Amino acid sequence: MSDIDLTTASGAPVADNQNSQTAGRFGPVLLQDVHLLEKLAHFNRERIPERVVHAKGAGAFGYLEITEDITDLTKAAPFAEVGKKTPCLLRFSTVGGEQGSADAERDPRGFALKLYTEEGNWDLVGNNTPVFFLRDPLKFPDFIHTQKRHPATHCKDPDMFWDFLSLTPEATHQVTVLFSDRGTPKSFRHMNGYGSHTFAMVNAAGGRVWVKFHFKTLAGIQNFTAVEAQKMCGENADHATQDLYQKIETGGTAEWEMQIQVMSEEEAATYRFDPFDVTKVWQHGDFPVRTIGKLVLDRNPKNYFAEIEQAAFAPSNMIPGVEASPDKMLQGRLFAYQDAHRYRLGANFTQIPVNCPYMARQVANHQRDGAMYDGAAEGSPNYEPNSVDGIKERPDAEVYPHPVHGEVGSHARDYIQDDFVQAGDLYRLMDPEQKSRLVGNIVGHMKNVTHKGIQLRAICNFFRADSDYGKRIADGLGLDLEAEMKALRG
Ligand code: HEM
């Protein structure tokens, strides 16, 4: 190793990195010690705001390879031909915990994919579950508040948790997934990923279909039991982060099959579930899955902060051939993420190398300046129209034209019965051991609720999904439902 001069950030050589400058041997430290000042000041600025949700995570790079021709469905660049490989970044996360929280906590896991395509970055920012707790973005901040810390005690609070969820019947399906074995995956490699929302695919001829994206792990699904997960939380808060890094570092890969479900506009109009409600799945019997590609992770980040902490995934990053659906949650998310990135990373977050659309044929617009601006546009015009730079709009990138009508208003999409059908179906699909673990996990959490009324309201939702499901939770909590009902009726 050849010697290299130690320098300040401005490149000036540093004479002494062991002793600060003082006025005499025993005198006070001098303000003129600019190296000391720089070190202390930089240290104070090492933290940026953590993600308001999904703060704890890990990620790796790789590629998506297409194995089936779907150009009849979409003109999106990654699907242009069988065998095409598109480079990607995938970040996994837990949702509610802070940056230092344990990987093994019971929580959904984030599954955020960034595909670096010739048409720009396409982000599919999903979870390891095909559904979500809510169907309206207006409820998201309230929901997240209840999953985090109490404003006074600063502790997780089972009353808040179940108060909100028991008043949110559409969450029953996702709550069932959360407290099932799948709420504690053994590692990031041993779980599926889902785009969760319904998206539109548009083909070169201008035809549109609705799609769901699924990523099925090729390592097989493996989960911790509640006891194993709790133990792991105590033993190693970073077990899944380590697992992913070590797997790839020792020459291994993490792999998923990419699948889609496809629904025509006519089918959407008559499907028995609202196809744009993210609390529901499209049942596989109704809309079978098709395997169309393989996702492979084979490269670790060289620097965690630069490439994973600063990674900015946004559902609004879409490319021609993939568009949003009217799913209200997805529509809300189209705003939320880039707003978070501007707050967390600054106005020029797309210039950070990991977010840079480096595969895009070009990045050409008239946004300029702001903190950390790289100046790549040099002296070119910062206004449009102009007669200088030749930058032209691309009419073929226009959104799929479709009529929209209806009365403006805060419309509820209430499907009271439907809110329990799929949760009940999922419960009935489980074998006896899975059912027992699910019930045990819910009871184990809900027994800490201090208000019986909240417990009863939550049980009511599970009961409406499946009477056996609700009854077993009531039994587990030592509640006699009949007596409680009588007491309520007075
Ligand atoms: C992260 C908002 C629903 C998956 C985030 C972040 C925000 C946010 C602000 C932090 C972004 C950042 O700082 O980089 C919302 C809102 C939602 C919503 C407002 C509903 C209206 C969902 C849903 C899913 C999801 C339904 C999955 C189906 C994720 C994932 C991340 C994330 C995976 C982490 C991305 C990463 O790894 O950087 N969300 N979210 N979110 N969200 Fe959501």
Helix/strand order, N-terminal first: HEEEEHHHEEEHHEHEHEHHHHHH
Low-confidence stretches: none
Query: Judging by the overall fold, what is the CATH architecture of the largest domain?
Result: Beta Barrel
Q: What general outline do the C-alpha atoms trace?
A: globular
**Class computed from helices, strands and strand pairing:** alpha+beta
- Our count of helices gives 14
CA gyration radius, whole angstroms: 26 Å
- Which distinct ligands sit in these coordinates? protoporphyrin IX containing FE
CATH class assignment of the largest domain = Mainly Beta
Range of strand content: 15-25%
CATH topology of the largest domain: Catalase HpII,  Chain A, domain 1
Explain what the structure shows.
- Its EC number is 1.11.1.6.
- The protein folds into 3 domains: 1-46, Cytochrome C Oxidase, Chain J, CATH 4.10.91; 57-134 and 183-359, Catalase core domain (Catalase HpII,  Chain A, domain 1); 420-489, no CATH class.
- The protein has 14 helices and 10 strands.
- It has helices spanning 34-44, 140-147, 158-166, 172-178, 226-235, 239-249, 265-270, 304-309, 328-344, 418-429, 432-446, 452-465, 467-476, 481-489, and strands spanning 57-66, 85-94, 109-117, 120-127, 193-194, 199-202, 208-217, 254-263, 290-299, 322-324.
- Strands 1, 2, 3, 4, 5, 6, 7, 8, 9 and 10 form a 10-stranded antiparallel beta sheet that branches.
- A hairpin with a 5-residue loop joins β6 and β7 (208-217).
- α4 (172-178) runs parallel beside α10 and α10 crosses α12 (452-465).
- The longest helix has 17 residues, at 328-344.
